[in-house]
Amino acid sequence: MIPAKHLGRLGDRAKTLGTDPRTHPKLLEVLQSLHLDGDSHVGTNLTRESPLQDIISYVLDVNDILEDIHQNMDLSVPKISRSATEIVRSTKIVVGSDGNEIRLIFYRPSASLSGTPPPGVVYFHGGGMVILSTENPMHITWAEATARLGLVSIIVDFRNAVTRSGAHPFPAGLNDCTQAVQWIHNNKAELNISKIVLQGNSGGANLALATALKAKKEGWVSAIDGVFVTAPYISGTYHLPEEWKLENLPSLVECDGYLENMRTSALSSKLYDPSEHNARNPLAWPYWAEKKDLEGLPPHYIITDELDPWRDEGNAYYRKLVEAGVNAVGRMNLGMIHDGEMVFRHHIPELFLASLEEIRSFVFRV
């Protein structure tokens, strides 16, 4: 076993996914074919002190590149056993607190697999709360896949912190998410759903966790039956000195450059809270939640990835939940990068399908 202090870039700053012995063989094969197994540090001279408009332009360019990549990837869903044969899509519009329209996209089995009202899974997509569209094929196909399990999947089209048409920093996106969940709860009978479970990956995991925290703070947490998140991006500490990272969240150093890197993360997290007044506000960055914030929350299920820079913050949040008496499960995907089972689902289908089965089991259990 490799001592912890020698893992990844803690022991060798030149380490890459191609040379780290922990990288899943199937993942390594696809990364090599795409020439992504080397150093993934992005070449930009921008810092958090750069003009805000320059940071916005850079992050939006990154968004466009990622959207194009996802549009050209095979993100269809591997075969699911026990699945519904037909999925029906519909939309509803909810008016937000800023007078904005919040679009809810429903994916529903045409017939309940159990003959009773199915549970609802409210999905918040990834992208660091800043980038990626709701209609990105990675998000849509995931929602369709969960619906095939006999669940009603509801995607919240929340406002990203930056768009080509304007900025919507914290708490705009979170407000959209919480208002959507409250509307869904108030209309459960009409929507014919039996439960509400929040689900999100990466930045969407942040929003799912923060929605539960906000619901508790405002006194309506009983509306939420559970929270299921993967690869949570929740600390906002990506610009802090390396000494702080090594002491508190060493994976931010250990896995920096394993497709995800701290330079870009420091820029995008700045856009979520440009004033930096919410650096330790758990509604913006749930990692900073204290025991009093967590006590009384509904059951949680947290999945992290071993080779993800944000692994340690997800694991730390799980431990905080358990210490606060919350019914929580924590699990780690060994050899996997940030959200790797979602992106490379056809190369490692067993992990993608395992995540689906876990969310199905969790939703029906809570």
TrEMBL record:
GO-annotated molecular function: hydrolase activity
InterPro entries: AB_hydrolase_3, AB_hydrolase_fold, GDXG_lipolytic_enzyme
Domain Alpha/beta hydrolase fold-3 stretches: 121-339
Keywords assigned by UniProt, alphabetized: Hydrolase
Pfam families: Abhydrolase_3
Superkingdom in the source lineage: Eukaryota
Protein name: Alpha/beta hydrolase fold-3 domain-containing protein
Species: Periconia digitata
Phylogenetic lineage: Eukaryota, Fungi, Dikarya, Ascomycota, Pezizomycotina
